[in-house]
Amino acid sequence: MTNHSNNPTIGGKTSMKTIREAINDALREEMRRDPTVIILGEEVSGGAGCGGQDDAYGGVFGVTKGLMPEFGRERVIDTPISEAAIIGAAAGAANNGLRPVAELMFFDFIGVSFDQIFNQAAKFRYMFGGKSKTPMVIRGTVGGGWRAGAQHSSMLHSIVTHVAGLKVVMPANAYDAKGLMVQAIRDDDPVIFLEHKVMYDIACEVPDEQYCIPFGEASFPRQGNDVTIVAISNMVTHALTVADILAKEGIGCDVIDPRTVSPLDHEAILESVAVTGRLVIIDEGNPRCGLASDIAGIVAEHGFYSLKAPIRTVTAPHTPVPFAPELEDAYLPNAEKLMVAVREVLAAGPSGA
Amino acid sequence: MPYSTEFLLTAYRTMKTIREFEERCVKEFEGGNIPGFTHVSNGQEAIAVAACIDLSDKDIIGSTHRGHGHCIAKGCDVGGMMKEIMGRATGLCKGKGGSMHIADIDKGMLGANAIVGGGPPLVNGAALAAKTLGTKNVALSFNGDGSANQGTVFEAMNMAVVLKLPHIFVYENNGYAEGTAANYGVGATSLTERNAGFGMPAECVDGLDFFATYEALKIATEHARNGGGPTAIEAMCVRFDGHFIGDPQLYRPKDEIKNARKTQDCLKIFRERVITEGWLKAAVMDAIDSEVMVAIETAVVDALAAPHPDPATDLMSDVYCSY
Predict the structure, then answer these.
(1) What is the ipTM of this complex?
(2) B110/A95 CB distance under 8 A
(3) Which domain holds residue A36?
(4) CB contact under 8 A, A89 and B125
């Protein structure tokens, strides 16, 4: 049984930090603590060989800003635009004494590097009979809302969650982002760390010291007995909006943020559904073979007799992410769509509310 | 004598071990003792041994689907290899890898690789680790004329130059990428010229000549070890057998297959050279031949008697360090 308490209390000082700053803190402190931690990717510093300003980017979203000036280009490595070579270098280095953090910039770019992720890094340990370990982190930005078009907005967590040998992390706040990144770097398996690009500036109180959040342990940003809402990454924002509105109506939403989708905290979800009997899953990914249908399947198989109403999923439609603002807005799951689904689930079933 | 007797004996013994291992794999495959499919490297032994003979266990190699020879040259245990290829629990990878995924991290063998072109990006990583940690170790990737056309290899070569990585790219050009000719699939008139275009030293050698191949690789390895960055060596060679065991090879001229063993056998060429030069006596090599035959026979007998994996305990283990 996993510990289903909310975030453990960390002693000492805290500061308001954005997700961007929290991840930067985690990287910086781990690099100070462990000389084998390196960062590589496109413009993780920026300005290599240009003659202008060094550290011009610090990653395209500024997450790794300031790390190259402290740790040098030997440990914060600007690479050519060669995603397969970036991931391969990270995986090969991870098997030879380093703990690389590779950045894919936009996680859509797994397309050109996927062999190195799913055929190589993910399978080493199994293929090699347990003799190897591959302690690497692949950071990538996911999700829509930036009008970035179909090839820079995908939510591809389900693809990597499907792959045995990978762990998949999706923080929804700065506290989790820091603790999960520290855990990801210290973890001995390949970890995919997915950062939602619309969430970088969302801030909360974050302990100054380093701490780990274990993988496979959900958090419960709202607790209630009437309906379970499972949400990850930016969808947690919408789940909280809905939960706070319904709370004023006396309806209690049990909001579960799994934080990591591989491993997934099955128990937290099943225990919640055992109480509420009603489940809505909101996921920004496409609907087919996605996280929402996966969780629905788990509950249908293991929690069927707890259910008082059919499970509902709120996902993107089965299309690429569109560019035009009105199309993208229509594409993305949001609080309104979630509210409709939650009310339907509350009203459905033989003992509907 | 430019080479020590010990060096020559090691070179011969290792090449002969690869030859007999591969010939025996064919026999055991045809006898139904090897599941799946298998690619053998007989005919290409000189390159594997020339590339690995000076490497330590801390130097890393990445191999290909045709990787048995590279494993043996890098010091992997032939008994463990044969068990692995037969899918046994006591194989080098507990029977979870098989012929195309033999690896032995302790020997600096980062794995055969069933994805053509999958290895060089990973070998860059091993080279990056060596450079970052300042170990003076080198990394070496084996490639074929087929993987030479993969984008992953282009990316890896460029990055190796950009980051000045101690990575030796070895191209075993046996003339065939599966069933397609190298002179069809490689668009450039010369693979070596194209390799040079990446901005690294590039050389083409006769891969049937152990000594020519060794001398080129020695320079490349020292260059990498001294911080000079990557080198590409194309070694021309011949594949005695098909792409996989059982490949009818209809795409090859019949006399080419027939003549390869007669006129392009790197082991024969080695023997003739060392005898002509007076470096080794035939009787010494004949004795090695006998010892190798016994060792391979033992490997096969042991492998056939080795336990099979137990699904109850072995199926689910070794996926993660922790999950």
Answers:
(1) 0.93
(2) yes
(3) 14-207
(4) yes
